[in-house]
Specification:
The protein has helices at residues 16-20, 53-61, and strands at 2-7, 25-27, 33-35, 39-41, 44-49, 67-70. The chain is an alpha+beta fold. The longest helix is centred in the C-terminal third of the chain and has 9 residues, at 53-61. It starts with a strand and ends in a 7-residue tail after the last strand. The strands form two sheets. Strands 4-5-1-6 form a four-stranded antiparallel β-sheet, with helices on one face. A two-stranded antiparallel ribbon has the order 2-3.
Length: 77
């Protein structure tokens, strides 16, 4: 199991993640990206998933560097 984290305070609203997959990322009411189906605490979205390829691609393309993917030991995936 992997954890995907989106630090919304660092979001530059570039839209790269949303353009990549609108079923996994969307813009919230404040025009910042959010992970669909995630839990939010203190403006940080967190999602546990087994399928990380699209999330890793989103992290690589994020201009705000606000998306991170971690393995089950907390190491960057």
């Amino acid at each position: 199991m992997y954890e995907v984290v989106l630090e919304r305070d660092d979001c530059t609203m570039c839209g790269n993640c949303v353009e990549l997959d609108e079923t996994l990322f969307t813009f919230d009411d404040d025009d910042r990206a959010t992970i669909v189906g995630s839990e939010r605490e203190d403006d940080v979205d967190e999602l546990e998933t087994d399928d990380i390829e699209i999330y890793k691609e989103a992290a690589d393309n994020c201009t705000g560097e606000c998306i991170e993917v971690y393995d089950d030991e907390g190491n960057p995936a």
